[in-house]
Write a structure and sequence with these properties.
Chain lengths: 98, 472
Amino acid sequence: MFKRSEHDKRPLVQIFVDGVAVAARQGDTVSAALLVSGRDARRATAVSGAPRLPYCMMGVCFDCLVTIDGVGNRQGCLVPVTEGMQIEIQKGKREIGK
Amino acid sequence: MTMAPKREAYDVVVIGAGPAGLAAAATSAEAGLSTLLLDENIGPGGQVYRAIASTPVSERNQLGADYWAGVDLVQAVRASSAEIIQRATVWSLDRNLDIAVSIGGASAFVKARRVILATGALERPFPIPGWTLPGVMTAGAAQTMLKSSALVPDGRTVIAGQGPLLWLLAAQILRLGGRIDRILDTTGRGNYFAALPHAFAFLTSPYFAKGLSMMREVRAKVQVVSGVTELAATGDGQLASVSYVAGGTRETIPADLLLLHQGVVPNVNLAMAAGIEHRWDELQLCWSPTLDASGNSSVAGIAIAGDGAGIGGANAAVVRGRIAARAAVEALAPAAAEKLVPMATLRADLARAERGRVFLDTLFRPAPQFRIPTGDTIVCRCEEVTAKDILDAVAIGATGPNQLKAYRRTGMGPCQGRLCGLTVTELMAQARARSPQEIGYYRLRAPVKPITLAELAAVPQSEADVKAVVRG
């Protein structure tokens, strides 16, 4: 859906998506890193389980909700990637304790 | 990394570090007022100057000269004494000018003598069939990724809608080597005639020549279909095709990515939750706050600058930020105001920056069928409520957006009405043959962004707080 620019010289950052290592760049948001990863990053909505991907990328639509380092319902478009970050694609509503 | 505000009270707290907020905070701090600038994003710049301090797109002409104008604004505020906190989400602002802000999972509270809201704009909802499918995004979303991470579309890409941003984005995608298969222009044919009387001001504004050359640049490389009157996205769990009607002919094209845009509207959530009066703007088809010439709102001490005050664009936003800050300085430290640019000069700057706006608003006024959906089209993305659901609720007695919450939970999901509010107002107004002003909007309250119960529970309590809820 999206590709990176070959002129992008930002340092690599390794994140894990559902346990799989994914290369991101410093300054990427979690949502941008997921969208360019080529992986199926679709979450499932809390109401009907419908698949969604980020829509606005600016913090207003909440379609980027994702579990980051064990915390659910984070807005992936507002969180920058960090080395070793653990991301889980959130299926349905946030689980209690997560 | 996380950084709480250094003080408990400030002369001026500016919320939002886009063009208006950056200019306001710099002006206020330069006049010697203690100034705090709170912003939700990773870096300053807002949407228009998104990632201005960190973008990997270094070739300046790819993003355009207008983008790089943001550098000076950021430098000015960083050189000033203003305290700047990024990734700070303001979730409450009230009439006492008490502000609650979430930073790194913990809430802090600050008090202000003056608040300048610069929460900017968001893209107008574009509720077409299939707009919730993965692969359908806003044009602004693509531009955000382009600016902050140099990402461009590389699958089969369709851009649909209207307005200056759409053409700017298309030009930027092409300059960075991205792919666009087709542009579907939804500008209503009648809009050209309606806009004609306002054309002179636009022709003499700086937007005209820039806009024209950008459209030429894009049209040379991409097939543009104008006069699109219907639009739908289809696919099974993922966008597969876009179908549209232009000139009475329906066409369906395969697509991996559909980027939608039909203008921007003020981001009103924090202002409305603070109790600031808003009115329905018949020209811009959105809620705009009632403000005086300096941006002061109906709540004493709170001013609004930038697109949150009514859409005016980045140049107008900068001037509005300076005007609101100067007014704050005049009120709090009149002697210091004398060193600032005179108000008369700023007002002349604003008139110049707003030149041509009525033309753009009239030309790019979105058509009713793209604002007011029918049938199974989803209106409320969070609670997955369709246009038909809402009309059914009206038929059994729902009178306005707040009653509708009880019937269908519209606006009660995490986005708090940001993506459905305008649609709900216009849909109910049409169904009940009332004006949007009569129908009204959601009653918004803090927290204006979701925070966890744990964060709320960890907030320090005073004896008065405890007494307010504990018996005996």
